[in-house]
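queue> pop job 88
queue> type: inverse folding (structure -> sequence)
queue> payload:
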């Protein structure tokens, strides 16, 4: 049986990273992290800590990137929910046995973590990101940055 450890982030597609960051900081007292470019996905992102939750604000940097396509099709808003898992390959194998096909066939390595996305068609329109973090991972608001 698949076991999700915990929600590690909520991904939100935005048109204006700075504007949305300022809003969350000013209204809710959020803590804004560094900005990272991810040319592979045609986006840049920043983690914003709201209480115990990391919100990944993602802004397109190209018209053909994944976030630009998402905003064009659905507008700004929820893009994915990320969960920590112990053994990503085992979890993906379990999902395949149940008939689910991951978006990426092989795990991606992103900032030292292994990642697989599950298509929103499988889960009532919600994309899930499964993340196996390295053993020494301390989070976005630590020395890992």
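queue> result:
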């Amino acid at each position: 049986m698949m076991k999700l450890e915990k929600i590690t982030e909520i991904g939100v597609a935005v048109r204006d990273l700075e504007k949305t960051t300022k809003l969350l900081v000013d209204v809710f007292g959020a803590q804004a992290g560094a900005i990272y470019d991810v040319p592979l996905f045609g986006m840049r992102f920043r983690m914003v800590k709201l209480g115990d939750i990391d919100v990944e604000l993602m802004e397109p940097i190209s018209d053909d990137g994944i976030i630009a396509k998402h905003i064009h099709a659905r507008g700004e808003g929820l893009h994915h929910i990320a969960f920590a898992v112990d053994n990503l390959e085992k979890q993906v194998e379990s999902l395949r046995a149940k008939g689910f096909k991951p978006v990426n066939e092989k795990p991606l390595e992103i900032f030292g973590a292994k990642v697989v996305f599950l298509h929103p068609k499988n889960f009532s329109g919600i994309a899930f990101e499964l993340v196996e973090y390295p053993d020494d991972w301390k989070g976005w608001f630590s020395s890992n940055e």
